[in-house]
Amino acid sequence: MTTTTFDRGRITARVPAGVQQTLETAASMVGATVNQFVVQTALREAERIIEQERVIQLSSRDSAQFLTALDRQPRLNKKLVAALNDHKARIDDSTGSLNWSPRSKRV
Q: What is the DSSP letter of 101?
């Protein structure tokens, strides 16, 4: 017989009596224990926040402007040319790695 072991963490919280009563009431309304209710609700909210922070939503107009900007070649100015040349000089063609060392702090 095979048994599966799940790594589990523990979350505990001390809350005012009124908050506990509200959580107990809500949990009982959906047929869950307080622990199940708190974990399920917190997980749903955590997933919503993660999704909200990971996804950028643009209007049709904004997305068209963004794609147009990506298609445009950047204007070459002195700083960009210097940065590209510096980058090219630091690349090791045999390995494809970047020969990098930190610059001293500017004061």
A: -
* Mean pLDDT of all residues belonging to the chain: 88
Retrieve residue 72's tokens: 């445009």
Q: What is the pLDDT of residues 52-70, one digit of tens each?
A: 999 888 999 999 999 999 9
Q: Quickly tell me which residue has 């963490």 as its tokens.
A: 9
Q: Which amino acid is at 78?
A: K
Location of structure tokens 């790594």 = 7
Q: What are phi and psi of 48, to 5 degrees?
A: -65, -45
Among candidates 4, 3, 23, 5, which has minimal Cα distance to 13?
23
Beta-bridged to residue 98, according to DSSP, are 91
The structural domains of the chain, with segments of one domain joined by +, span: 17-54
